Amino acid sequence: MAATLHAPRDEASETPPLSADLQRIADSPAFHQLQKTRNSLAVRLSIAMCVIYYGFILMIAFGKQTLAMPLDGVITLGIPLGLGVILSAIVLTGIYVRRANTHFDRLTADAVRAAQNK
User: Fold this and answer.
1) Who contacts 60 (Cβ-Cβ below 8 Å, separation ≥6)?
2) What whole-number distance in Å separates Cα of residue 8 and Cα of residue 2?
3) pLDDT tens digit at each of 118 positions of the chain
4) How far is CA 8 from CA 1, 11, 12, 13, in A?
5) pTM of the predicted protein model
6) What is the C-alpha to C-alpha distance for residues 92 and 75, in angstroms, rounded to an integer?
């Protein structure tokens, strides 16, 4: 007979109920739009980063001769492509931050305003 392990139930780990103000915000259409928009952008940027990163890893695994092509003296194609992976992470992060500081902040303010008017 296999033993089943259960984590001890800790009342402190349970999520407390939301206050009335937070519940109104969570129920507002503006908040749902914010969640939908933010999650959509996060998924798209994550997929883009995974394609870039794993594409580079696959090039390392299966395209060693291509990455070893000399460009100028001792610099090979792999060096600028590796830097491109790093720079793409910085650019994608910048895209998310810019969007969060403009569009997402407006949607957040709309959700709070909508909750205050109820």
Assistant:
1) 67, 78
2) 19
3) 455 555 555 555 677 777 777 788 888 888 888 899 999 999 999 999 999 999 999 999 999 999 999 998 889 999 999 999 999 999 999 999 999 998 888 888 888 887 777 6
4) 21, 10, 11, 10
5) 0.74
6) 26
